[in-house]
Amino acid sequence: MTVTAAETVRAIRAAPAGPRVGAFFDLDGTLVHGHTAGAVYRDRIRRGDIGPGELARVLLAMIDGGVLGGDPQAIGRAGFAALRGRTVAELSGLAERLFAERIAGTIRPEARDLVRAHLRQGHTVAVASSATRLQIEPVARDLGIPHLVCTELEQRDGVLTGRSTTGLLWGERKARAVRGFARATGIDLRKSFGYANGLEDLAFLGSVGRPYPSNPDPVLRHAAEEHAWPVLTLREPRSPGLWAGLGTLSALAGVNAALTAGVVYGRLTGDRQGGINVGIGLSADLGLALAGVRLNVTGAENLDKVRPAVFVANHQSTLDAVVLGALLRHDFTAVAKREARFDPRMAVISAFLDPAWIDRSDRASARHTLDRALDRIRAGTSILVLPEGTRMPTPALGRFKKGAFHLALQAGVPIVPIVLRNTGELAWRRSLIVHPGTVDVAVLDPVPTGDWTVRDLDDRIATLRDRFAGTLANWPAEVAA
Predict the structure, then answer these.
(1) Which ranges of the sequence are coiled-coil (predicted)?
(2) What is the 3 state secondary structure string of 53-97?
């Protein structure tokens, strides 16, 4: 029997709540598409940080243990030995960089939904993997998973010894570790969930009462049929294709043509702002249509309820700019970091909107820029700010900077929160390609700032960020359903 992520989420919601129910997720091939170790080795090869001898030993161990049915622990021993003398701090930094650059974009979107559903139920959620803590921690933190059952590396004074304190948690060894974790934390495995994709996890899946082979390899799929386990199919992260590339090129051409039409309209009518408004709305609509992107907006009435206003949105993708243009449409500009001024993808839109470019490295300059933005608000122009300050590699929220909230406080205008759910899925942070699909948007009720003070600003910002996080975790359409 094959089940979807939506059906599995319903099963999770129907399961007993509380920490005695466990939810154990394999990492490679389950939470993420592909193998995190592969990203590490590709990066080391690219930087010339791995010699031919080490690479040959690791490859031979992988072939023997993973393909020829030899000792899987040999893979671990070869990998552990290669790390001898490296510091934990150094490898933690490498793991964070690789997560942002390569691994974040491989997290399966529907796996995120499953994790969120278990956390809502108060289940004890853990990553159970043969990968090391250093590999797993960035992914687990992003997904909000608090527990790790994983291969642990031996260290002395922050330096790796080239050995493991657990051995490689592969096959039965991983299953024993999960059972041990369950005993230590009071989890009832008979009521617990397990997710994995490879035959090596047959013993692990057999340890829980509710196993879900997830995008399984052919051998595990056959075993699942024999055990009458539901086979879970998770949607893969999007990868560039010909049609997406052509759609992106068409969208760029359409945006530029529409902006040009707006300029022409403004000159013919003598109404520059009217031309800008025409160009913004037309270019955003045309760009999204040609890229095959549709908008599913909740709370659209809040976009024009109060103007001028400071609109704040979370930031996952270059696609955000076009989506937000389609939403706001008229009489607005933006505050953006100075570095984005030199992004060729933003050049035409930036020239059209005339954003307030803020130099975060120069406090006096940043203050002057915000003062100019304040003057524009008082003249009737709304301001769009992305308070995270940079594109986030995943839907997880970054820290909110204060600039947008100072503006709203000083101008005495409301803040209108715009929550973007999945622009990063259609156009990942580092991708130049936009994939067709539907972007979910929630425009929340305007937040009055008349009674705000500088003293309570931090608390106000934290409360608003919590609203963003709560909306992402409990999306309006899902709550209504």
Answers:
(1) none
(2) HHHHHHHHHHHHHHHCCCCCHHHHHHHHHHCCCCEHHHHHHHHHH
Indicate if 185 and 301 belong to the same structural domain.
no
The verdict on 431 and 321 lying in the same domain is: yes
Among the listed residues 303, 319, 329, the one whose alpha carbon sits nearest the alpha carbon of residue 422? 319
| 223, 265: one domain | no
Report d(CA 48, CA 30) in Å as an integer: 30
Per DSSP bridges, beta strands 153-156 and 159-164 are antiparallel
State which of 211, 232, 253 marks the end of a domain: 232
Domain count, the chain: 2
Helices 52-62, 73-82: inter-axial angle, 10-degree rounding: 160
Say if residues 262 and 405 touch (Cβ distance below 8 Å): no
- 3-class DSSP state for residue 226? helix
Phi/psi at 2 (5° precision): -100, 135
Token pair recorded at residue 216:
């399984």
DSSP state of 107: B
Give which of 13, 23, 14, 4 is closest to 209, Cα–Cα. Answer: 23
237 located within any domain: no
Q: What mean pLDDT comes out for the span 222-242?
A: 87
Which residue spans within 206-302 are E strands per DSSP?
Answer: 210-213, 231-232, 293-298
Count CB neighbours of 473 within 10 A.
13
Total-model pTM: 0.78
**What residues have CB less than 8 Å from 27, skipping those under 6 apart?**
36, 127, 129, 131, 135, 136, 139
The 10s digit of each residue's pLDDT in 319-363 is 898 999 999 999 998 887 766 666 655 555 666 677 777 766 667
Residues recorded for the chain: 481
- Whether 177 and 279 map to the same domain: the answer is no
For residues 346 and 381, the model is more confident at 381
Residue 103 counted as domain residue: yes
Show the domain range for 59. Answer: 2-232
| Bridge-based pairing state of the strands 415-420 and 124-132 | unpaired
Amino acid residing at 55 = L
